[in-house]
Batch of 3 targets.
Target 1
Amino acid sequence: GWVHTVWLFPISGTNNCTLKKVRPSQRTNDKPHEAWVGLKKDAGDIITAHCSCMAGLGETCSHVAALLFKVEAFHRLELGKASCTSLPCVWNQAFTKQTKPSRAHNIPFIKPKHGKSEATLAEERRIVNRRSFESEIPKVGKNLLDALHTCMANSAVFSVVNGYVEDTAINGFITDEHDVNLPKQLFDLYQHCHSELPESRLLVDTTFSKLKVTQLECDFLEKSTRN
């Protein structure tokens, strides 16, 4: 039959009594039978049993057996214990507080090898080998830079290398015998008194009158920017 909720009545001493209503398996619309069993607490021995059905008068029937099966399954499956998530902080006891911070480039963002294909593992090994190869590349020494500077002092790379910037700037300009300067830059045309003039008057009075480039300045600019 279908066993309903089992009730436990503790008795003084070492004995217990369990009471249960069991619905008949064939006549489901009939009134459920009431079965009860007397048990020992420590050993689980059956002292006596009874059921309100006809066979239960002899203390042995399928309803009593169903009650005992349910009690045994309840104990075997540990259904009476509280789940780990119902207890306070039990599910989080494995959390560790000794984790030390690390830089991102030192953290391997890869999955465990379990379940990976050979192609994926080969790609990971290739990346690791490439990183080890890059770490073995020696840095450019001063002897190599000196040799390159002797061959090509005006190379653009020396304009950003410490120790060669000034030499590159000096070698990049060709001094004229007349010591001609470069043309004036645009910020040399600024005068504070012109700030009060209208735009049309300012263009006429200042820009075209002061923006003059001589032939010597043109020749020197061409030589300075050659190559």
Target 2
Amino acid sequence: MGAIRSAATDVSKTIYDFKAFDANYNEISLDKYRGKVVLIVNVASECGLTNTNYNQLKQLYDKYSSRGLAIAAFPCNQFGGQPDLYAKVDVNGPTEHPLYAFLKEQQGGTLGDDIKWNFTKFLVDRNGQVVFQVFLEYAFAATLLLF
């Protein structure tokens, strides 16, 4: 029982068209985020960026959850070693989760089509549309204020 789903072949319009397995391998529809601003992030536990990013995610959640921010964290070990936590997924390549294929298609990064490292974040508006991708944090907090 894995979190890997075959690559998306249809053109999905929003994140609500996707499902993912939670940490207990229950299939969850991302429709649960309808009407919320969602931060989707690939996370890691053994990365030099882990402590800083987990602290930032917690601060963002504490500050903005009352305004409708949800965080969906997907563990990934393609780059080395209290959000909703999903089962481990691939974010690049032939076995990438269809949600990540969609996210990258909707909001190509400045570093190309593949996610380059842990903690790449995709911000999704209240209508399920991908509006922002960021790896570095410099303009991220200001962008959150728009929602």
Target 3
Amino acid sequence: LIPENGDIFCAVDKPYAISQKYEPAVAVCIQLANIFARFNTIAANYKIFAWEH
């Protein structure tokens, strides 16, 4: 599920549930800008770690 502006990604754990009333689904929504910034930080830390060893 991606809203119109496209900057938030949502993943639903039960996208094919027939009835959400009896099988509530959990949706996780992430702002893409935030997650990409986090990935960049992890990648930078990994490169520093790899360089030291």
